[in-house]
Amino acid sequence: MSTRNSYKVLIVEDEATSARHLGDYLMERGFDVRLETKQKEVKETLLNWRPHFCVANMMLADYTGLGLLEYVTEKKLDTKVFITSSHNDIENVKTALRAGAKDYIVKPYKVEDILSRLIFQIQKKRKIPSETEKPQEKDEALLIQLVNFVLKEANTKKSLHSILFNHSKMLEIALKAVRCSLIHCDPDRQTGFVVCSSDERSLRGLQIDLNRYPEVIHVMNTEKMVVIENMENDPTMAAIKEVVKSISFNAIIVSPVFKRGEFYGVVSARMPKEKGDFQDKDIRFAQIVSQVMSLVVSMDLQQELKFEKKEKKQEPQVEAPQESTSSSKKEEKAS
Question: How many of the other CB atoms lie within 10 Å of CB of 260?
Fold first, then answer.
């Protein structure tokens, strides 16, 4: 199903069955795909075919993912490299990202996860305004007022969960978002738990598969905010959107939350489909809310933040979210 204008993906993998399965899956969804295993052929394909993406195993018989990244950097190629590995240690992730990888994907993975990571990289990212950059005068007074509300709420005698829920509600109202959620990322870097969601209190404690949310994985790996612009009407995504019904193209903002300086999770705000791009004041306020939430989760009253974890039901292997289980629907609402 590839076309001349398709995004090109090079798969570098010596497990032939899984490589073909991934390749067939991506081609059926509008990508142009090539498979390689040997160092010489990989380098030639990178240099001559110039793929947009490369999904590469960290360890091959005669090549490593780090060696591939070094070659891409040396030749100044525009190829975005995803490293795949069965090792999920944070130091391995950081090493790959420092070497130039755009993503680090833990094996075994689902082909749907690779697709969502590709689309995340394709989606346009909004430039984050510098913290030293002075906001426009018309926005400054509003920001000060909003910050005052958030700080006052953080200083109340309410439970920590109530404070965090109210902060998520404030962010939802200020941004006119569909929902705003605080998600705690488990140390296994695969599992998340909803601490609070502005649109439904019952989602508290819901377990989610982080691999379904590449924007959350990205923020967890980089510990930096990401802002995705609305891609609903982008003609370059038309072919992919036609066959991919399980991925949202709404504008979304995701900011890291820390607990005593260590990564804790993310606060995310998802916009309605008709909503355009974020303004600087929206991004600044989301940054402030995430920083205040970091202070709240860092408080010593740890018992208040414990909750009964609701195990996610096994999801059927379907593409369209409307066919998923009720628990999966809850997970969609939480993100």
Answer: 10
pLDDT digits over 123-174, tens only?
878 888 776 666 565 656 666 778 888 888 888 888 888 999 999 999 999 9
| Alpha-carbon dihedral 109, 113, 115, 118, rounded to 10 degrees | -100
Identify whether the C-beta of residue 37 lies closer than 8 Å to the C-beta of residue 60: yes
CATH number for the domain formed by residue range(s) 8-122? 3.40.50.2300
Beta strand 103-106 with 80-85 is parallel
Domain ranges of the chain: 8-122, 137-334
Give the residue from 105, 109, 107 showing the smallest Cα distance to 82: 105
What Rg, from alpha-carbon coordinates, does the chain have? Answer: 21
Q: Could you give the CA distance from residue 57 to residue 75 in angstroms, rounded to a whole number?
A: 20
HSE-CB of 235 using CA atoms within 13 angstroms: 1
Show the DSSP H helices in the chain as ranges.
Answer: 16-27, 39-49, 65-74, 90-98, 111-122, 137-154, 160-175, 214-222, 238-243, 280-297, 326-334
Domain spanning 137-334, CATH architecture: 2-Layer Sandwich (3.30)
Cα angle 310, 312, 317; round to 5:
175
pTM over 0.90: no
Provide the residue type at 175 as one letter.
L
Q: Is the dihedral of CA 135, 136, 139, 145 positive or negative?
A: positive
- What gap in Å lies between CA 186 and CA 217, rounded to an integer? 12
